[in-house]
Specification:
367 residues, alpha/beta
């Protein structure tokens, strides 16, 4: 049932309304809304719509679409939601028209067919504002990424991409490597998640390692829960040593042993590296080796902190860094991670999972 205007509470940046249903973040305030009406005032800052695991009605989809077309949405998350193919197409067409949308979360099976993949590809070809795209847990297969690749690889703003648990293989990974251009080429991804894609072979991972070594942009790489083993980890260590930008590498649950840990220890001990976080939880690696690696990474950050000019912390950046602390909580249960600084210049060693979009855009990886 659509609510009439008389039953709506006027929304301002100071309004706080609580109703059952989906979440609407209005500017920097949180508003809970269970009605299928998403009032967006043109004078207000773009809002954030987050809906999880719901069956979306045609009326709700219509209101989402209108908000997108009116440039009233900065973050749209419908992770795990169910909606008809027709409604999914409507949302994609509205995404194409939006000039405000910066983050789109379609995690957990929303993109469930090649037809939906084509709708999304068409939207990305037209959209110019999107910076972050989450597709974690979507059964894309290689064919799906082949469909998406022309739009993804040419998008002018996309810097963060989550393709975890998307049933990808070597063909898809080859296309992804094209999104990590070498120095001097076009800008590419800064954050890439490929968690839980066991169909990728050692040949595919070797190709990714080469791309990472020469990427001029990549700062965060999540490869957790892939059956990599020590051989692939050795290739990745070479890539990390060569990279001037990679700051976070997540290898949780990737079948590593002390052999891999020793290689990473030698790397951080004897060679300059941009790496600040190495996640090795859920591997057959001794606590002593993990502690040594963590200590060396911390020492490297302390040295950089002393060389950097004093900075005035930015509250939005501090909140974003807290999100990455939450992401890498398992390794911090035993070992202390380096302190984070706001990302403001090239001398600051920091990682921002929200791609510089501030605290209203939530970085997440769904397993």
């Amino acid at each position: 049932m659509m609510l009439t205007e008389s039953r709506l509470t006027p929304l301002t940046p100071d309004t706080s309304v609580t109703l059952p249903g989906f979440q609407l973040l209005w500017a920097d305030r949180t508003i809970e809304s269970g009605v299928p009406v998403l009032p967006v005032a043109s004078a207000m800052l773009p809002a954030s719509i987050q809906i999880t695991g719901e069956m979306l009605s045609a009326a709700e989809v219509q209101d989402i679409c209108e908000s997108l077309k009116e440039d009233g949405v900065r973050l749209l998350s419908v992770r795990g939601c169910q909606l008809s193919d027709r409604d999914f197409g409507r949302v994609c067409r509205s995404v194409a028209e939006s000039r405000s949308l910066a983050q789109l979360n379609l995690n957990l099976g929303v993109v469930s067919s090649i037809g939906r993949t084509r709708h999304l590809a068409d939207a990305l070809k037209t959209n110019r504002s999107l910076q972050t795209l989450f597709l974690h847990g979507s059964p894309l297969l290689d064919a799906g990424l082949v469909t998406l690749n022309p739009a993804l690889s040419t998008h002018p703003s996309l810097v963060c991409l989550d393709l975890g648990d998307c049933m990808l293989g070597d063909e898809a990974l080859g296309l992804i490597c094209g999104m990590l251009p070498p120095d001097g080429a076009k800008s590419g991804l800064r954050e890439l998640t490929l968690s839980a894609n066991p169909g990728i072979s050692s040949k595919g991972w070797a190709r990714l390692s080469i791309a990472v070594a020469h990427s001029s942009q990549l700062r965060v790489l999540n490869l957790d829960y892939n059956p990599l083993g020590d051989q692939i980890a050795g290739m990745l260590a070479v890539a990390v040593a060569s990279s001037r930008t990679l700051e976070v590498l997540d290898l949780e649950g990737t079948g590593l042993t002390n052999q891999s840990a020793q290689v990473f220890l030698d790397m951080v001990e004897n060679y300059p590296t941009s790496l600040r976080v190495l996640v090795l939880a859920e591997n057959d690696i001794s606590p002593e080796l993990q502690q040594q690696i963590c200590d060396l990474l911390s020492e490297g950050e302390d040295d950089d902190d002393r060389e950097a000019l004093p900075l005035v912390p930015d509250p939005a950046s501090i909140t974003a860094f807290q999100q990455i602390r939450d992401k890498y909580h398992p390794i911090r249960d035993k070992y202390q991670l380096p302190a984070w600084l706001p990302h403001s210049n090239s001398s600051t060693q920091a990682v921002l999972l929200t791609s510089g979009l501030g605290e209203s855009l939530l970085a997440e990886t769904e397993m």
